[in-house]
């Protein structure tokens, strides 16, 4: 309908639309929802209005009409003016706490001592170009209160009073920086399921990881082993292969258990051990082939073996240890085990269960927990055994001389039907999934199918599920890698039914999340590495550097202003330097353009393949020129690229085990599910022959990747464990 004319030549209708857009954009800003962003080519991009409304609706805002949007803005302003404290306060050591002005503020320490806080002399200066760092900043608090020097790190409470009104909130005092790894070091990067030995049950497990860490630490002077996420998957077949779409990030996948290493195996009767050996034999035989990893077959056999071991009575000391584990894990373990038992019967997607089982706290769920008590107990015990074997892996790594030991990987999110999504369903945003906008290697964008945390509700819950997850992953770790490290700052939300390109960024209180992360890392003594590749706002890398969090620098992505390979001296120091990642082909495959051929076959290219091949040839030509100029032999690109990494100032150097043995196939092709055997590729050499853990000490290609990073090309570690023929075997 046409509007009425106005003096400036516009219409009343135009003014109403402009006002409505202004209110919508202001409401989006209040919720941390971006209405525009910079794409991977550096160009501005506007977010569709339907996306903004869908995201705001998922956050609980009423956007059904312009009047509703205006009321939402007024409600938020009203609530913020009334509050004295943020829902959860996170303060870095030596910094100030933000709260309402003209209030009495004091801290109740975990010890019971009370500390009165005095207003700081001046409000903290606002850093431009960054969203609010904490929920306190997002709520508009500007009055700063000084924590006394020496306020202990840890979890306390803060109180505030103004007149008759009083509020209390949890307070975390976090270290200002993440733990430092010390001297420069290098380590192997491996997809554990692919690293099999002659004793594996068809896929790599924690016993294999223990051997890999002990061997590489003792014989190669490696300082760490970085592995894929070991999060829990489906409790019954079919088990999906992706380690980055778990059922729970709070618990671990029993697929990685080695049944023979469970202590109850040693006390089991001969018939039980014979039956377990029968289950293991065909799986071990498959480990010697180049066939794809079959998780369903491996888990079917392992589950049967572990069920036999669960029937073995616990010795008194073992029973006491198990009781202590259950006490420590509490209700979270019971919830996970309950979901697992229900999923065995109803499938691993809780929204499809009978309606009465949707609420974890319902009487129906309690009745089912009682009815299936034996299965609940079985899944509890699996997690206990996993905790023990994870601890044994880290102990072996440190005993072998590793500075860090195992660096575990934290996925971005979880499956929407899984255990975490069921147990914490009120803390996830409905109708949304996490992904990534279009970029150079995934030009249609990505939808990972994972529900995002609801930022405001997570803060209101005191970040409890988040910190419990971190504590679990860090319990037996020397380091933690954050897959898609932007998960701390913002995530790309894709509304259900929309394409990945139609999403938008939603900000999180990154100061709060980083504070929780740094405190748990401090408690564990673990370094933190952020995978900050792709489209990353510059302030995010600045924040990581300020807080001692390592970034990730990958050779193929590090380019100068003209797009040419970045010289080694211009790389950053606080990073894990690698040639590639699990989402890229190994060196041999990349040099041959395998990734282009694969994407062309799968219809994932947005421009002609000839252009892709031409650009790759030019890029590789630039790399060879740079390597030659540095005095490195570009005829052996594996050796030259790793020697290049050693010349950067990077504090941590990562060598992919796939690169080290000459593998060509990529582990994962983003944008696909079953079109390509993602996460099912066993470790093999350039000819496709399987490479077992047993083969590594004599493998002829290993020195090309390992020698440059652990000797005179800039690495600080010695060459112990390597010879001209390859890594030295243990005596």
Automatic annotation (TrEMBL):
- Entry keyword set: Carbohydrate metabolism, Glycosyltransferase, Transferase
Family annotation (NCBIfam families): malQ
Q: Which Pfam families match?
A: Glyco_hydro_77 (PF02446), MalQ_N (PF21226)
User: What name appears for this protein in its UniProt entry?
Assistant: 4-alpha-glucanotransferase
Q: Which reaction is the catalytic activity of this chain?
A: Transfers a segment of a (1->4)-alpha-D-glucan to a new position in an acceptor, which may be glucose or a (1->4)-alpha-D-glucan
**EC number(s) on file:** 2.4.1.25
Which gene does this sequence derive from? malQ
Family per similarity comment: Belongs to the disproportionating enzyme family.
Top-level class of the enzyme under EC nomenclature: transferase
Keyword Glycosyltransferase on this protein?
yes
The answer to whether the entry has keyword Heme is no
Hey, what's the signal peptide range on this chain?
none
Show the InterPro entries listed in the entry.
GH (IPR017853), Glyco_hydro_77 (IPR003385), MalQ_N (IPR048458)
Region (Disordered) residue ranges read 709-731
In this chain the MalQ N-terminal beta-sandwich domain maps to: 85-175
